Amino acid sequence: MKKIILLLSILFISVLHADTVKIQKTQVPGYYRFMVGSYEVTSIYDGYSNLPLDTYKGIDAANAEAIIKKEYSHISGSGKNFSFKVSVNTFLINTGKELILVDTGSGNSMGPATGAVKKNIEMAGYKPEDITKIIFTHLHPDHVGGLSEGGKQVYPNAVIYANEKEMDFWMNNSDFNKEFKDILNTYKNNKKYKALKDGAEIAAGIKGVLLPGHTIGHMGYEITSGGQKLLIWGDITHGYEVQFANPDVTTAYDYDQNQAKETRKALMKKVSDEGTMTAGSHLPFPGLGHVAPNADGKGYRWIPVQYVPLD
């Protein structure tokens, strides 16, 4: 009898203990380091956006939905209520002499699912005030929103770089967020803004590449060091599921639909032919990998980087 009571007591304690184990709804900090020659590049996770299916243009909605589901992507709803998650990534380049940030993420401009760039930079071991240059791919809210916080500069020691046409377009656009205009003007008025053109060198081995269409002055950045190359291509794609297999598909966010399509097709062929490592603002975090042609010769596929520790 005593043994039975003891066994029941152990069982009761085990069940009680199991009922009190807390679910840990957290992930590891949102950064991933990798090397490009002697340069250390860190992918910085800002968060994610939920995009509706009608984001894509030039493809039947049911077909787009089927493609996304086939990839087992993070989705919710169906039909008109269907949406899919897209990462928002930025990139921090450590040349050994300076820190250069590519885009600043959303800040508080796009809801609670984004805005983690500053926190994740700090988790990666850096301070916002250590960053000396910020180079923008373009000036959409999810790329420029993290430049300020409560109207104050998040990166007080940085000089900002953007394509000249891109800056002029948005600063003269009445729909552009006033807070963004004010903070950009603060940099411009303090002579902490430099206009970029195609091929402009930002630092040794880092140059801007004009990739227009998504916006009027959309830029990519080519990093070359020690015989290795990385292309940060900004918003050439939104997600990977639809536009790799169907590079003709554009998005509702593209300023010039046809130009965006032609830029994407030419760039995908180029990086695929050359085997260039590629990083994207809206590819699954850490947003790093390679582009390869599909076996049937139609479209491409995304080959994400495999996690490895740094040597």
Describe the overall structure.
The chain has one domain: Metallo-beta-lactamase, Chain A. It is built from 8 helices and 19 strands. The chain has helices spanning 2-19, 61-70, 117-123, 141-144, 164-171, 178-189, 241-245, 257-274; strands at 31-36, 39-52, 56-57, 75-76, 83-94, 99-102, 131-135, 148-149, 152-153, 159-163, 193-196, 201-203, 206-210, 219-225, 228-232, 250-251, 277-279, 288-293, 300-304. The strands form 4 sheets. Strands 1, 2, 4, 5, 6, 7, 10 and 11 form an 8-stranded mixed sheet that branches. Strand 12 and strand 13 form a beta hairpin. GO terms for molecular function: hydrolase activity; metal ion binding. Pfam families: Lactamase_B (PF00753). This is Beta-lactamase domain protein. Residues 87-282 form the Metallo-beta-lactamase domain.
